[in-house]
């Protein structure tokens, strides 16, 4: 079996930032920060990309959906392969492919090449996070919620950095230059992980057993309900991540700088909220916390849509970030508690393929509705998705 799964460990034996497990947690989190930053920098760059490549909002949303869709498809094989081969194998391969995809985006002077780069990034990114989360679960039990909170917060730091990177890049260069530091950092993380991890590389034919994993994953009504709720959350999240800056600029009339700041605020707040939510999930029942987070997010997003002033939009965006970003570490810890240890990678992978795959429809949906109506109307559907998801989890919490 991959990793170094031990028996039940106490909190005193687990260190989030020290020791071998802590070093791996920080390293894979840096990789996730960079992958997320590279993907999410596309959102504040989107108006410039649309103009430079002469494409419609729908075609821009389609490119994001391709990236997220391929990313989603990679979750299950990543988890299954990391269970049967090694976490290290999947993580290093994922980092290498993501590096290659971002390199293509640096050279993307046409829409077809832009699609190719997005697709390759989706493959590399798809292989990475499930194996990373399984690796973290290998090394953390008593502090699993805290470890997931730190790891998922790293992705939000990447999102916050993406907004600043977009503003800085557009001030001095074309949008393609934003991916150059992403390529450099991912290459370094891959090399350091290669030398740090004690696991060996394993290459072998593996039966993915999609049917067996699916039968196990969807065997209970509780798991089915939770995954439906996560699908609706992912739909809202990916729609937001793809078009929030565009909403703030084109429909709300704010400057590109304000739109980028609002986008960055999502992730800065998320980086603060997720570790706290993860630690809370280690101490109380997870389902009520997750339901409350979704409900808060729905109310706040509605506030963003109806607000008129910069102050009101800013406050609503911060509250939206609190609700939206508190959900993943709580729910992922909950799911990992449910999944059997010897198949947690595959189970989490198929769950992620399901909800991220559904969520990948979000950017295309927003682009389509915005093209026919406006962005406020499109985002109204995301409010409805969060309300339904909150209701499902609230029922589960009873």
From TrEMBL:
<feature type="transmembrane region" description="Helical">
    <location>
        <begin position="20"/>
        <end position="38"/>
    </location>
</feature>
<feature type="transmembrane region" description="Helical">
    <location>
        <begin position="115"/>
        <end position="136"/>
    </location>
</feature>
<feature type="transmembrane region" description="Helical">
    <location>
        <begin position="178"/>
        <end position="196"/>
    </location>
</feature>
<keyword id="KW-1133">Transmembrane helix</keyword>
<feature type="domain" description="Major facilitator superfamily (MFS) profile">
    <location>
        <begin position="24"/>
        <end position="398"/>
    </location>
</feature>
<dbReference type="GO" id="GO:0005886">
    <property type="term" value="C:plasma membrane"/>
</dbReference>
<dbReference type="Pfam" id="PF07690">
    <property type="entry name" value="MFS_1"/>
</dbReference>
<feature type="transmembrane region" description="Helical">
    <location>
        <begin position="375"/>
        <end position="395"/>
    </location>
</feature>
<keyword id="KW-0812">Transmembrane</keyword>
<feature type="transmembrane region" description="Helical">
    <location>
        <begin position="258"/>
        <end position="277"/>
    </location>
</feature>
<keyword id="KW-1003">Cell membrane</keyword>
<dbReference type="InterPro" id="IPR011701">
    <property type="entry name" value="MFS"/>
</dbReference>
<feature type="transmembrane region" description="Helical">
    <location>
        <begin position="313"/>
        <end position="336"/>
    </location>
</feature>
<feature type="transmembrane region" description="Helical">
    <location>
        <begin position="289"/>
        <end position="307"/>
    </location>
</feature>
<protein>
    <submittedName>
        <fullName>MFS transporter</fullName>
    </submittedName>
</protein>
<keyword id="KW-0472">Membrane</keyword>
<feature type="transmembrane region" description="Helical">
    <location>
        <begin position="58"/>
        <end position="77"/>
    </location>
</feature>
<dbReference type="InterPro" id="IPR036259">
    <property type="entry name" value="MFS_trans_sf"/>
</dbReference>
<feature type="transmembrane region" description="Helical">
    <location>
        <begin position="348"/>
        <end position="369"/>
    </location>
</feature>
<feature type="transmembrane region" description="Helical">
    <location>
        <begin position="226"/>
        <end position="246"/>
    </location>
</feature>
<dbReference type="InterPro" id="IPR020846">
    <property type="entry name" value="MFS_dom"/>
</dbReference>
<feature type="transmembrane region" description="Helical">
    <location>
        <begin position="89"/>
        <end position="109"/>
    </location>
</feature>
<dbReference type="InterPro" id="IPR050189">
    <property type="entry name" value="MFS_Efflux_Transporters"/>
</dbReference>
<feature type="transmembrane region" description="Helical">
    <location>
        <begin position="148"/>
        <end position="172"/>
    </location>
</feature>
């Amino acid at each position: 079996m991959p990793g170094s799964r031990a028996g039940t460990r106490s909190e005193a034996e687990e260190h989030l930032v020290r020791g071998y497990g802590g070093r791996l947690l920080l390293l894979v989190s840096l990789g996730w920060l960079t992958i997320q930053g590279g993907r999410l920098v596309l959102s504040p760059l989107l108006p410039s990309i649309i103009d430079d490549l002469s494409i419609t909002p729908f075609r821009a949303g389609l490119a994001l959906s391709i990236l997220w869709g391929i990313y989603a498809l990679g979750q299950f094989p990543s988890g299954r392969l990391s269970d049967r081969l090694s976490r290290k194998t999947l993580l290093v391969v994922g980092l290498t492919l993501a590096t290659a995809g971002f390199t293509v985006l640096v050279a993307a002077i046409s829409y077809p090449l832009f699609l190719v780069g997005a697709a390759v990034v989706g493959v590399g990114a798809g292989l990475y996070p499930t194996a990373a989360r399984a690796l973290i679960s290998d090394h953390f039990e008593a502090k699993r919620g805290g470890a997931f909170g730190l790891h998922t917060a790293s992705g939000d730091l990447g999102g916050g950095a993406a907004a600043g990177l977009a503003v800085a890049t557009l001030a001095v260069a074309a949008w393609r230059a934003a991916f150059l530091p992403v390529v450099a950092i991912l290459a370094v993380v891959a090399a350091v992980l290669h030398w740090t991890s004690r696991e060996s590389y394993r290459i072998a034919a593996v039966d993915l057993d999609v049917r067996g994993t699916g039968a196990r994953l969807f065997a209970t009504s509780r798991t089915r309900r939770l995954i439906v709720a996560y699908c609706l959350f992912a739909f809202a999240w990916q729609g937001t991540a793809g078009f929030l800056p565009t909403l703030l600029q084109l429909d709300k009339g704010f400057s590109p700088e304000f739109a980028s700041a609002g986008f960055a605020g999502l992730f800065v707040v998320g980086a603060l909220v997720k570790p706290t939510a993860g630690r809370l999930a280690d101490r109380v029942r997870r389902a009520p916390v997750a339901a409350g987070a979704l409900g808060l997010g729905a109310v706040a997003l509605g506030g963003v849509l109806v607000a008129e002033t910069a102050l009101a939009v800013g406050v609503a965006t911060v509250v939206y970030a609190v609700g939206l970003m508190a959900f993943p570490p709580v729910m992922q810890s909950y799911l990992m508690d449910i999944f059997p240890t010897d198949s947690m990678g595959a189970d989490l992978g198929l769950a992620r393929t399901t909800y991220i795959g559904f969520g990948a429809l979000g950017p295309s949906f927003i682009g389509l509705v915005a093209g026919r109506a406006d962005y406020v109307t499109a985002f109204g559907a995301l409010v409805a998705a969060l309300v339904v998801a909150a209701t499902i989890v609230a029922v589960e919490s009873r």
